[in-house]
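User: Some background: our group keeps a shared notebook of sequences we're curious about, and every so often someone picks one and asks for a predicted structure to add to the entry. Today it's my turn. The entry only has the sequence so far, pasted here. Could you supply the structure so I can complete it?
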Amino acid sequence: MKLLLTLFAALAFSTAGVAETATITVQGEGRVAVVPDMATVRLGVLTEAPGAREAIDSNSRAMDGVMERLSGLGIEPRDLQTSGFSVQPRWNRTETGQTSEIAAFVARNMLIVRVRDLDRLGEVLDAVARDGANAFEGLQFGLSRPGPHEAQARRRAVTDARQKAALYADAAGVALGPLVKLTEAGSARPPMPMARAEMAMASDAVPVAPGELTVSAGVTLVYEIGAD
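Assistant: Of course. Here's the predicted structure to add to the notebook entry:
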């Protein structure tokens, strides 16, 4: 019994001097406004014919023309990617809404196109519409080299967090100790979408305004509270 009491007293003495370190935790955010330098367009060709084979053949001819036009406009093969192909029947419906018989077949071929010269984006959209593209499912502006802008946003996020930590320490009347933890909350460069619409013929190049993208980053810093 005496031995147990001695061990308990020794353990209590060893832990009594261990106190939880006081810290200051802050979050910082950094933002960088950047003019986009590329666009991603999802466009395609829809064709309809009495038979499935005819719909596919008609669609293939139209898509060949679109891709040939894109190549002539300087779009490289690496910037073209088929995103979906389908052939489906279109049914006639009765007055009650019930399907009765196949009226035609619809072939659909969609293509993702990256345009790296935004000065020619309107020209590209207009040209492919003239050559057979009749479906348009969206446009997003982006950055070909986001890394440097993300790095700048991260630096701003850390600076923001450090300034907050210094302010809080000063307001609380304590000294700011060493940094003990840094956690990144992630970075983001949200796309700028254009709503889905049908491609339309135009007498001039389609007007396009790229605007700006915002690249953001966030961090969490944990500082010890130092001795006065």
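Suggested note for the entry: Helices lie at 2-16, 52-72, 121-130, 147-172. The longest strand covers residues 99-115.
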